[in-house]
């Protein structure tokens, strides 16, 4: 029986090759997009699952409340030891802190990111040790574990084991382990690991072992809890844990911040919005949600196309259906027959889609920063998912037409007096409305995303982002004799193309420390955490930030500057922004001058008010805006060099020359701030931007194909009606208008519905940004007009051909 169904299906498909081609093409487009996104989702779900025991690994995370809720991946180190004491269910625990520095071996010297880790970290994560032993590699001081690529970078073809890698020309580290490079599907980005015992030998026993409950300096903690029920019990007990263990001296402030702890499963970390102690980064989750949404809309549009075209063929298939019922076919038999046709078309569409997927995998993975391959489709887990997915697509695409056609009564079907009736025409119109609604929403959303990206790149960030070079001096305060810092800064200024050289404690887009400040008259519990940076007196000129009131830091006021250990008896100088004026209730910019703010026990006098500015773009919020600038005489690692655009090339050559003179031991690390600013926006928005544009294009193509096929079939069916109208005096123009109106009405309805949906969709996207663009009503009108014109062009040729046909030919008897 199934064989007969298959033969009939093949014959029916062969009868109308044009309709069959359009059905296959639209389904293929839907399958290409959907399978790529399905592979993306499976790749994302595989993150960190290559580690043994991944189900039982958790990251301890923190949340606090300031002027907003901050969900951080960092912990205050003071919680770590009490955590192990209170919860015996924790099998293993370890801390990790990331940083960067200059490493050297013989004549090879290069900066590299590295991590300080507790030795237990190597037992939590099952790194693939090519050389060395995970149990002992970092237990001794002055030892280091490197990845295979780092070993090649510094040691070439030499055996790295036992070799000495020098950190910052100061500390010799013996290589005690080499691990395989980590796979791309892990949240860990580790090249070099140095044990915390080494850090304690350098700094002291407080290294990665502080006692503060409200000080966040980049430390993350991972724990292994074998029993999921125990993990849930620990999470539930965290509020009581804080009450039990927080020192009395810190309790008031921690409580005022509403400090909470949680356990984040390892498998959830990749899409987690927690990014250090900064604004939550929802970009990965936003891109994933966007891609899945776009893929679903495209696939639904493909299925609608299939169903709409099948319903338009109901009259042609009606006699076939009636004869089959007369000969004893049941409704179940007819359902099976039509679903077999649907499945066959879907299989053909899959075969057409496979080479396209093969070609598109590379560009797609590059766009989405993923690393799956075409071959991954044929893994045991992936192939099962894809087979189920394709089968479900074929079933859903053919279900509505199969149900409609299997309900025909034999008498009406054989008489050929109906094409499915008014209900079928309403269903076809409704499907067309839904299809074009998707298309219009995606077009407007794509335009909105493009406008948002342009807005972020052009927004006033409070300073001149152009012609500003950010230079990493690689200054290490623990090794101040490594090079002559002051001489290098002085030499940099000896060029007419270099206008100013400013110093800052952290490179943008970082905002420095984030600590509790308060007005001198406020109690400690009223402290308000804000971002603050250490700078010198040239910072404002280098950034070209406007001074609104008061004065800049000046060497004429030595009391402004911090140098060495802070003295609680001194009052240092700070400059603040209008946001800080409002935050600390200082009145106007002028009245804020000379008022005192406190950071712990240390006093700071407001000497100037500068305009608000932000150092980063992309998915940001107010946390990323610096509010306070502190004056410091200490050397600072980052140099901000304002150059004359007319002498740009010679100024850059001068910078390189000065670097080569003072830092021949390290490659230069400089970039234009504008490039890093735009790159951040690009990385956070490019994926969703390109996906929306592509989804809009594909959906429009599918909708246009479907509309053309419907126009072709409908005009062919109405040939005799058109002949009668022409005999009775109708002009070709009136006939074209009549035929076109039937197709344009659902498109107009779709545009009106889509405008409302697009308004909310773009609004949701814009809410992810603190600096929001807007979509002009003119954009909506242009998109609607464009969609109507596209629809008219799609059906016009067929309508004109039918309207011009000779009525003698159309009125011939069958």
TrEMBL record:
Transmembrane segment boundaries: 21-41, 286-311, 332-358, 378-405, 426-451, 694-713, 743-766, 778-800
MF terms per GO, please?
A: transmembrane transporter activity
The name under which this protein is listed is ABC transporter permease
* Ranges of residues in domain MacB-like periplasmic core: 20-238, 429-647
GO CC annotation, single: plasma membrane
Provide the species name: Pseudohongiella spirulinae
What is its subcellular localisation? Answer: Cell membrane
Q: Which UniProt keywords apply?
A: Cell membrane, Membrane, Transmembrane, Transmembrane helix
**Source domain of life:** Bacteria
Q: How does it sit in the membrane?
A: Multi-pass membrane protein
Query: Which residues does the UniProt record annotate as the domain ABC3 transporter permease C-terminal?
Result: 293-410, 694-807
